[in-house]
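Take a record:
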Amino acid sequence: MNAITPTRRQVLLATLSAAGGLAVGVGTAREADALPIGPTPWDTDPPAGAQEITAWVVVEPDNSVLIRVAKQEMGQGILTALPMLVAEELGCDWAQVRVEYASSHRNFAQHKVYGPTMTGGSRSVRGSYRMLQQAGASARARLIVAAAARWGVPPASCDARASQVVHAPSGRAVPFGAVAAEAARVVLEAEPAIRPPEQFRLAGKPTPRLDTRVKVTGEARFGIDTRLPGMLYAAVAACPVFGGTLADVDEKAIAGRRGIRRVVRLTDAVAVVADSFWRAKQALADLKVTWNEGAAAETTSAGFRAEYRAALDGPAAKALDRGNAEAALAGAVKVVEAIYEVPHLAHATMEPLNCTAHAQDGRVDIWMGTQAPELAMKRAATAVGVWPGQVFVHNCYLGGGFGRRAINDELEQAVLVSKAVGAPVKLVWTREEDMRHDRYRPQAALRFRAALDAKGTPVAWRMQTAVGSIRRSLGWDKVADGIEPMAVEGLANCPYAVPNLRVDCVLKNTHVPVMFWRSVGSSQNAFAVESFVDEMAAATGADPLAFRRHLLAGRTDFLRVLDVLAERSNWGAPLPSGWGRGVAIHESFGTIVGEVVEVSVSTQGAVRVHRVVAAVDCGHVINPSTVERQIESGVIYGLTAALTGEITIKAGRVEQGNFDTYRVMRMAEAPRIETHLALSGGSKWGGIGEPGTPPAAPALANAIFDATGTRVRSLPIMNTPLSGRA
C-alpha cells in the first residue's frame, strides 16, 4: 500500500488524456515508455482538440485513438480484447490505440449509450461484440465520408487502414486526426455492415495485453491503492453471525487514543475511523462489542449437511421431465446411484473488499473496483438518500472479482461512515473480515439414479438437487416456481442422450448468504454429472472417454472437443504406478470445455496434480492469448476448490479466516496446463472467463479413482481418506 511516485511523463500523460484517469500513451517503438493504458483506468475528459466520433471512439490530434470499454477489467483481459473488436472495424493502427473505461455516470444519464456495464456471466465479448464492431464500423464510415468530401470523391472509393483514410485511385491518404472534426459532424444515412469473423485482420491473433506493464511495474491503481487529500481510514467488523445486529459498543478502552477520530455504529456492524488503517484496526480489536446473534448462532455445517440430504427426500419442483424415468428405473437391468455433496466456498479475491467514499451534500464520489458500477451508483444513492445521478464511481482495477464484486457490501458501509465523519474515508475489510462475510457459493447435495440396459447404455436418469437459491439470498426474487436457472444449469440441459430424464430441484437457504461464484451452478453440477458418468462407465467396464462419445453421438461440437482432448492428452497411454488419468466435459456460458487431469496419489494419500489438458470450443476467439490464460486461471480456481476449498460454520459463524485455513493452490503445486482450441465457428460466441472451472473438479476426482480405486463424492478432496496403489 505504499504510494507510487509517478514519473513526469506519466503525470503529463494523465493530465492530457485523463484527469487522474486512464493515462495512456502510445506503446510503439517510437515511444517505448508510453502507455496504452494508465495506472487509473476510469473515464476522463478528452484532451483539447480531440474529437469524439462516437461514444466509443475519440480521435486525438496526434492521430492516436482512444477506445472506451464498458466492462470492468479484473484479470480476464477485456481491456485488450474489447478494444480489438473496435479497432478491427475502425481500421486504426493498433500501436496508436489508448484505452479507458466508459463513464458509468454518462451511461446512466444517456440512457445506456454503452449498453450494460455489469461484468459477469462470461458475457464481455459474447454480449458486446456486435455493439463494439458496429461502433468501430460507424466511426470508420464517418471518417471516410469526411475525407471523401474533402477530396470530392465517392466514399465507396475510399478505405481506412493504419489510422488513415486512403483513396487508392489517386494515391491520396489523410490521417484520422486531420479529418476527425469533420467526421464528428457526419450523420450516416445507414449504419455500415460489420465483418464476419472469417474476415478479421486483427481479432483472432495472439495480442499482448495492454494492461500488463502497469500491473507488472506496480503503477496500476487498484481500489485499495486510493489516496485522497484529507482522507481518513476505517476498519469495520460486522456481526459474526449472518443476520445478526449490533447491540452495544463499549468505547472506554480506546478513549483518547492517538489518531482515533470516531466510532461509527451501523445496523449490523461497527467501524473505527482513524488517521491510519493500522490505528483503526488496532482500536477496533480493542472495542468491547455486544451482538444480537439470533437463533442462527446455534447452526453448524454438519447440521446443514444433514438438512440438505434430508431435503432430497422431500417435495421438489420438476425442472425437466422427459419420458418416464421412474418406470424405466423400476424395470432396469442395472441401477447405478450416488450422492454428491459440495460445501460453501469463498471467492477469496487477492484484493480484499475495500471502498473509498466521499459523501458530501448533493454529491457522492466512490473509488473502488466493482463489477457493476451502475449498481454501485444506485446502492450508494440509497444508502445516503441522494439521486443516483449524484453518485460518481471512479472504477479502479479489480484485484479479482469472480462474482463477489458485483454486490458491494463494503460500498454501503463506506458511504455511511464518510457521511458520519464528514470526510473522505477509505474503508478496508481485513482478510478475515473478507473471508467471514463473503456471499458464498451455495452448499448443495445431489442424488443421481440411472438405469442401464443389457448393453450398459443409460436408458433413464433421475437427478435431484438441493441447493441454496442465489436470487432469494440476494432478495431479488422469491422464485415462486421453485426452479432457479443457476441451480439446474448442467442438469436440465444435460447433453447426454438419455431418453428418460427427470430433474428435481429443491431450493433451500440457510442464514449463510450465497451468491454468484465463478461458473455459478455449473461448479457443483458438473462435478456431480461428470463424476456420475464415470461411475456409469465403470459399472459397465467401458472406457470413460469412449462412454461419453457414445452418449454424445450426434453432438458434433462435443465430439470435436473430445477428439482434440483424446489426441492432445495422449489418452490411454500408460502411466507410472500410483498415477491416474481422468476426463470431464461440460458446457457453460455457451462454451464447451473438456479437461483431462493426470494425478499421482502417494501411499500416504498425498495428491499431486501433474498435468491438465484442456480443449475449448467457444465458437470464435478474439485474443487466443486471453483464452489460454483464462482457461489456466479457471483450472487453478477449480482445482483449488476441489482439493481444499471449504467454508464451514460453527456456532453460526464462519470458521476460516485467512489463507492458512482456507488454502489456495500455491505456485509450486500448480500443474502444467495445456489449452487447445476446437472451435466450431458459425453463429456460436461463447464466454471464456468461467467455463474452464467446472470440468476441473470431476476430472480430478475421476483421475483419483483411476489411481486409487476410491470414489470422491464429497468435496473438498482433502476430507476423503485416500491411499495410492503401491
Residues 149 and 586 are 54 Å apart (CA to CA). The two ends are 50 Å apart (CA to CA).
